[in-house]
Amino acid sequence: MATVTIKNVWKYYGQTPAVKDLNITCPDGSFVSILGPSGCGKSSTMRMLAGLEHISAGDVMFDDVRINDLAPKDRDVAMVFENYALYPHKTVYENIANPLRLRNASDATIKQRVSGAAKVLEIEHLLERRPQELSGGQKQRVAIGRAIVREPKLFLFDEPIAHLDAKLRAHMRGEIKHLQKTLGTTMIYVTHDQLEALSMADYIAVMHEGELQQWGTPSEIFNHPVNAWVAGFVGEPAMNFVTAGLVGEGDQVILTHADFEIPLLPSQVGRLNGAAKTGFARMGVRPDALSISMTKPAEPSITGKIFVNELLGGDMLVEVQLKDCRMRIKTTPEFAGKPGETCHLTVNRDKWHIFDAGDGHAYF
Amino acid sequence: MASRDVVHYDTPLQRILRILAAVFVVFYLIWTLLPFVVMFVSSFKDLLAAFKLPAVGDWSGIGVFFDFTPTLTHYQTLFYENNFSRYILNSLIAAGGSALISVIFGSLAAYSLSRVDFRGKADLFFWIISTRMAPVVAVMVPLFAIFRSLDLVGTLPGLILAYTTFNLPFAIWILKGFFDNVPYGIEEAQMVDGATRLQAFWSILPLVAPGIGAFLVLCVLFAWNDFLFAAIIGSGGAKTLPVATRELVQPQNIQWGAIMAAGVVTTAPMMLLGLVIRKYLVTGLTMGAVKE
Amino acid sequence: MTDTLNTTGLKRDSGEDRFRARAVSSEVEARPITAELAAPSRFNPAATKSYYFYLMAPAIALLAFISLYPFFWLIIMAFQKGDMGAVQWVGFKNFTDLAKDGRFLSGWVLLFKYSAMCLFLQVAIGVLLALIVNGAKYEKFLVTAFLMPMMMAPAVAGLLWLFLFNGTFGWYHWIFQSLGILGSGSILSSAKTAMYALVIVDVWQWTPLITLIALAGLKRVPRDQIEANMVDGASPLRNFFAIILPNLYPVLLIAVLLRFMDNFRFIDHILVLTGGGPANSTKVLPIYLFEVAFKFFDLGRGAAIALTLLIVTIILGKILVGVFDRPTKGRG
Hints:
The structure holds three protein chains of three kinds. Chain A is built from ten helices and 20 strands. By secondary structure, chain A is α+β, with helices and mostly antiparallel strands. Chain A folds into two domains: about 5-235, 3-Layer(aba) Sandwich (Rossmann fold); about 240-355, CATH 2.40.50.140. A six-stranded mixed β-sheet of chain A has the order 6-7-8-3-9-10, sandwiched between helices. In chain A, strands 13-12-11-14-20 form a five-stranded antiparallel β-sheet. A five-stranded antiparallel β-sheet of chain A has the order 15-19-16-17-18, with no helix packed on it. In chain A, helix 3 runs parallel beside helix 5 (about 135-150). Chain B has helices spanning about 10-40, 45-50, 75-80, 85-115, 120-135, 135-150, 155-180, 185-195, 195-225, 230, 240-245, 255-275, 280-285. In chain B, helix 7 packs across helix 9 (about 195-225).
């Protein structure tokens, strides 16, 4: 159990930086997810924490101990690999027992710990099998078993459920979260799936091209993204982005576009800095923060033509064509509009965002 | 997949081991390459200089090795007095000829074995490969007798045929592996489009071409370096370079200078070939058992 | 919407296009993949096997001439005595003579002794080199340098080492002398040491093969497993024995078997360096066979010896092929 501090850490492969000046503090006992697309540096970060890659610059501390120069075996971490990395010539029992055997634990302790881990993961009936005979989900549990059989300072899970089918993934999300809460060990969980991160983590570190984009709770990341990239990456269906002009009219600032003119809320006007008041900006709004109707409403709205409807069981996703882009709206399955018809969208202005048209940082 | 090596955290002991390892490699490198250097340099030394050695134990006197005036007399001896240009030609023809025959017949057989399945296929395959593994000396006894009765001894065609003994099964064995890697689906697609089986086969040849090329080179390598077959079956009319080199050792007088020169002439082309097919060497020398 | 099926632009008339795999268009009627087209197999007897057999036939015929015919010739000849011209049937006499023949028996003993020494050294040095060189900075250059000895004709290598071992002007002899390992007599001149000379040459020439094979095996060790073991708590030494060695073992087995069989086959450098002497101390069985068959022309006896060699080779071959298949079976 430890607090993990990553201070100004850089990772170079030759001349190419994979991780740039990373600063994160993971509180003791928390579930932290490092989220980002492939190539964003999350795996490199995890491998540096495990000791499988050298740290090019910066410090990594477990509680107050600097661990940069420690070999993996001295760091007291446990890791679950993306491809499980089980030992093919050993039984499941021996696979799970491996960390304990390497530390010269007694047979009695091993038996007790391994059975305990197997029980929690419901793989007791597989203990005498070999990895070749197991399914993907079973292999993954064995890998997790190998990690929890010790009591390490830190768990490192590297996209462990990426190769399972969708249903099993959904099931394992809950299992892993529950497991971490029960054990109370600090967990760092790397994934590219934003749904996993949002549902499981206490804190999320969003990374892109080696840089930390945002650190926060899932709620903060989702509701208050710090830039357009984070906003677009997190959330499914993805946020809608429309480039529009900002026009100041007295006290008001109006977002203008070929298909709409919507004023900002007074509280929001203050958040724009002066220069942005009369320029362009990107407006971001999630599909569920929009409502759609076939008749023109009283308040300012967006006009567009229905492109396609998608029924998603309990919701309907409607894609609407504007002059220069399309927007998606989540509505009820009863919605009757058909492709080609004109419709009107109302924006919930408590839930919309304005991003800088240049570098994408969020005004609000 | 292990392209980047696993990271090391060096203890002082490991650092020492690392240095020792480097020393070991350097010594091994010297030990491996020294004979080549001696052969190459000695081929340009006149005999007196070639035999010069420092006093026993005098390590600093090693420079004596380089103390000579280069001369081309040995090479001249080879080509003018000993007819070596003829032997180079023989080696080329014998090696090239057998490589060509082996690869042509071999690729047809390899393709068929790759596509067809029948009872006894494994046994046939084992028989094919056993001909490659048989001790040369053992095979040569009957071969010599048979060829003698057919008047093939001492002729280049006879030698080419003899080399095919080990080159053909080798070709079949290795090329079958390459054909196995080409999915039959490609030929099926061709045939659906209207090609005949033969045309389909022709169309997948470009996919196997690199493998065929590499093994042509390997066949040449094995035949060129052979001594036994050339000595017994090629004796007389079909003398190749290794045999001719050996003959420079006469009971009364061993022509060391010429031997060194002949060694260079025989080995240098093969060293170049080795560089060319470096990638396929392991696969070739282990008869496909180990794929790099 | 235009006909998307035709986007590949079929031109049925152009000859070149016929052989490019392409989407089936609505114009051409697709030939269903019937049994006729599929590859012939035990499960598909309807297919035209004969076509493939015709393709194989020339190669098989050639091989049969070169290997089957001689094999039967050997069997017949082993029961006869004499040269081609004058042969007489002598039954099992050749074999019983061999059983009493000291040279025959010592030929086997020497062969195994020689092979064992060569193999031990080659594997020890070869694997050590592979471990050191794997992933090192100059790996490519080093490996290229190492494989040079394999490119030399064994007979030429023999001649070269004859020069290097020479008691008067040989450089390696000088090195041994200066290191105190040898006296003034060449290593080749004494019956006690000549075998070692042969081992040295064989090790010089073929250790690189073991190194190359071991390297190939090392590169295929799954990196994941090593890393998992590291995180679990293993030191590099532990890693070597627990993960690397079990993965390397099958590849090494193949290498050892192959080299063992090669020792039966290649006697070029022995012929050149010692010819079996001094005092028959290096007369391994293939050399003895060479002598019997091509110096004394006792073809009958030679055939008998050749047969024994062949039988052992076939047994070794079966083992090798058995091991071939093992590494490819299920590696979790």
